[in-house]
Specification:
By secondary structure, the chain is mainly alpha-helical. Helices cover 72% and strands 3% of the residues. A two-stranded antiparallel sheet has the order 1-2. It is globular, with a radius of gyration of 19 Å.
Length: 291
């Protein structure tokens, strides 16, 4: 089926807007991998937890999702810091294989706790601007998606500045490069591990605030997002911040155009085809370095 140029252009723009939020979800995943060198299997569960936190903030306290960003970002930084410092670290005994098992166990526990508390019901929030659009020529651009895109880009830039310009960022990069050498020059490696995990959870909280005006939450919703995030991390390169941003935007466009041509229910086929092709042709990703 052939579509007119304005329809294709609108699908591409909407894909970019959605892809920015995907990139934000992937940023936390790639940051944790870059420093701890492990895949965080609890990433999707923490996103689900953050989305329920946004829902509670709106439904119980009347706090708009965008206004909840600083509050929930700080809260989930603390949750992530404490989880890594006092649960994952001690339980894993420094073994990467144990860390994978601990994060997988955390994922199962969190999902089942949320299922017990909220059942399997799907929940949404009703904001005044959820369905507002901007008219740009022949295109209709979702206001909430545009705000999400802008916020995601700001967070990505701030994260890059944190890593490149601050003492904490330099410590994070030092630990990512060589944790033994970092510890020998006085860097508290356990603290940096926890800070990194906390930043990853904070980015998830921001992503949740940007998602809830346009999406829904149930106890298993994070699984779908984390599958897309894994694809983005592989595409952009494990541990690469620019790779996660560019990969997220690209995946968003692929999903949007695939959904346009094949139907919304098949929109993610294009994502997983890209995943397979990257693994076959360039396993290190667009910006990743070969081991």
């Amino acid at each position: 089926m052939m579509y007119s140029l304005p329809i294709l252009l609108e699908a591409t723009v909407n894909g970019l807007l959605t892809g920015a939020i995907y990139a934000l979800v992937a940023l936390g995943l790639t940051l944790v991998y870059g420093v701890l060198h492990i895949i965080n299997f609890a990433h999707g569960a923490f996103l689900t937890l953050a989305m329920f936190a946004v829902w509670i903030a709106f439904s119980v306290f009347g706090l708009d999702p965008y206004l909840a960003i600083p509050v929930l970002a700080l809260l989930f930084f603390a949750v992530g810091y404490g989880t890594q410092r006092y649960v994952i670290g001690p339980a894993s005994h420094g073994d990467d294989g144990n860390i994978l098992l601990v994060t997988l166990g955390l994922s199962i526990v969190l999902e089942n706790v949320l299922l017990a508390l909220f059942r399997a019901d799907t929940r949404t929030i009703a904001t005044d601007y959820a369905f507002d659009v901007f008219e740009v020529g022949p295109m209709l651009i979702s206001r909430a998606r545009l705000y999400g895109f802008l916020a995601a880009m700001v967070v990505a830039v701030l994260l890059w500045l944190l890593l490149a310009r601050t003492d904490t960022g330099k410590a994070i990069r030092a630990v990512a490069k060589e944790k033994l050498g970092a510890s020998l020059v006085g860097i508290n490696v356990k603290h940096i591990f926890a800070v990194t995990f906390g930043i990853g959870c904070a980015t998830l909280a921001i992503a949740a605030c940007l998602l809830m005006p346009i999406f829904y939450v149930n106890p298993r919703v994070g699984q779908a997002f984390v599958l897309v995030a894994f694809t983005i991390v592989v595409l952009g390169g494990m541990g690469s911040i620019p790779g996660a941003v560019i990969g997220g935007l690209f995946i968003g466009v692929v999903e949007s155009l695939t959904g346009l041509f094949l139907g919304d229910s098949l929109g993610q086929i294009g994502i997983f085809l890209i995943f397979i092709l990257v693994l076959l042709l360039r396993p290190s990703g667009l910006f990743g370095a070969r081991a």
